[in-house]
Specification:
single chain, 159 residues, mainly alpha, three-stranded antiparallel sheet, 5% strand
């Protein structure tokens, strides 16, 4: 662990130090910052300085991304948590419960897709009227002609 000239562990890290410690590219950290996921301050030389607690926040972001949580959802969840302290076990429990529900819904959707996929071999996506994946029970037929997607309606209803 890098110490300052007086032998103390610095409270703030440079963007390069955060990149090295987190395994992320500097450009990724800048991107996260523009999305409000992490925050830095500027020193007198206009260089970014991150509080050490940013390392845990970045770790949470990486874990959430690995599970397939969209970055916008991660940003929304983290927006209610302060940037000046480490995430606590209670914070993580709240985040993980929300994300677990989202993952369970995605798993159910993927399972249904997998289970109906075999039927597509006979169809070959040639039937726009009878497709259990894109138009189950012809639910879209009532909405009129055109490229109406069931998933778009589900996203609106879920939010």
């Amino acid at each position: 662990m890098k110490k300052d000239s007086e032998g103390r562990i610095p409270l703030e890290l440079t963007v390069g130090e955060v990149a090295q410690r987190s395994g992320l590219a500097v450009s990724t950290l800048h991107f996260y910052e523009t999305k409000g996921l992490i925050q830095s301050r500027r020193n007198r030389g206009n260089q970014r300085r991150y509080p050490r607690v940013v390392l845990r926040r970045v770790a949470v972001i990486k874990v959430a991304q690995k599970t397939g949580i969209p970055l916008a959802d991660i940003a929304e969840a983290l927006s209610v948590l302060p940037h000046d302290r480490p995430l606590t076990a209670k914070d993580w429990q709240r985040l993980s419960e929300t994300w677990k529900r989202q993952l369970d819904a995605r798993i159910a959707s993927l399972t249904a897709l997998r289970d109906h996929l075999t039927g597509c071999i006979g169809c070959g996506c040639l039937s726009m009227e009878d497709c259990p994946l894109r138009n189950p029970l012809d639910m879209l037929g009532e909405k009129g002609a055109g490229p109406i997607l069931l998933e778009a309606d589900e996203e609106v209803n879920v939010s």
